[in-house]
Amino acid sequence: MPSAPLPNNESQRLHSLHALGILDTAPEERFDRLTRLARHFFEVPIALVSLVDSERQWFKSRDGIDQEETAREHSFCAHAILDVETVMVVSDATTDERFRANPFIAASRPIRFYAGCPVKAPDGSPLGTLCVMDHQPREVEADDAIVLKDLAELVEHEFKSLTLATSDDLTGLANRRGFDAIGVHTLALCGRVARPATLLLFDLDDFKGVNDTLGHAAGDRTLQRFADHLLSTFRDSDVVARLGGDEFCVLLSGAAEPDVARPIRLLREVLTHPQGGAPITFSVGVATYDPERHGAMSELLEEADSTMYEDKRSNPSGNQR
User: Fold this and answer.
1) What φ, ψ does residue 60 adopt, rounded to 5°?
2) What is the pTM of this model?
């Protein structure tokens, strides 16, 4: 059975999926009611909100099956996300060359019919589908496809509400919850492919003085400028977050400690000699992920925090918070 090709934006797609912080979470009524509606309307035995991860499809909501996930290579949804504007309909999987050898076709209760509408992240990346399945071949009318699209839009609405809970309102970066969600997956991926990962923890020097002297509006502008420069300095694949207050972090995959010296230097230069606005100085801690020493993200953050305070103590301008 041929596996589905990867979407062109696979790296960004996975980044958006993990940033949502929804994988491996408990069932939620707001999603379950949508699969119930889909199953009822189409009169099918199975309806799912399926999310396509790097090597699996995981079901945020499932009505009609017991499995929580299956291999991506066997996933109908991995094919459906290749065209985000179209409902993919497989009227009879035994006659479709993409699925004739699929193990679900040979199961005791085989999957013969599939209809899936891609569901997208707020940035437009396809995350998975809202899909319905049957053990018998069947057709889908044009009006039925519209209904499936309408239900998929409701799923996307719920994704947007989740995004608000994982994003920092001021800077637009991931917040602590969003960083924890995507950071865990980033470290796991680096571990699987034996690539390094390095965490940078930033603390703005004397930020309290900015608020006390110039006011909180000026402080907010400083935080926004710093966030913008982090985004422009580091790679699109790096995880940039505001953990709270004047504390920011960047998690770089495929980068060891020697690799981060240059972007840190460039960041210092552009912020110390800005084209507009007051100079910004910062202290930074560096910690390279070691699975034998860092059993959890909190331990990697703790090490970066320790080295950040070493940097702050060595820099007179960073001694005030």
Assistant:
1) -70, -35
2) 0.70
Q: pLDDT digit string (tens) for 218-264?
A: 899 999 999 999 999 998 878 999 999 999 999 998 899 999 999 99
Flag whether 3 is in a domain: no
- N-terminal to C-terminal alpha carbon distance within the chain: 59
Structural domain containing residue 88: 10-166
Specify whether 188 is located in the same domain as 158. Answer: no
The answer to the question of residue 122 being in a domain is yes
Nearest one of 108, 112, 109, 133 to 50, comparing CA atoms: 133
The burial of 316, by beta-carbon neighbours within 10 Å (0-12 exposed, 13-18 middle, 19 or more buried), is given as: exposed
∠ CA 213-214-216, nearest 5°, is 110
Please report, for residues 30, 187, 222, 246, the alpha-carbon distance to residue 122 in angstroms, rounded to integers and kept in the order given.
Answer: 18, 24, 27, 26
User: Same domain, yes or no, for 51 and 123?
Assistant: yes
- Four-CA torsion 240, 244, 247, 248, nearest 10 degrees: 0
As given in the structure block, the two tokens for residue 17 are: 């999926």
Question: Residue 123 is part of a domain; what is its CATH number?
Answer: 3.30.450.40
The total of structural domains in the chain comes to 2
pLDDT 10s digits, 134-168: 999 999 988 899 999 999 999 999 999 988 888 89
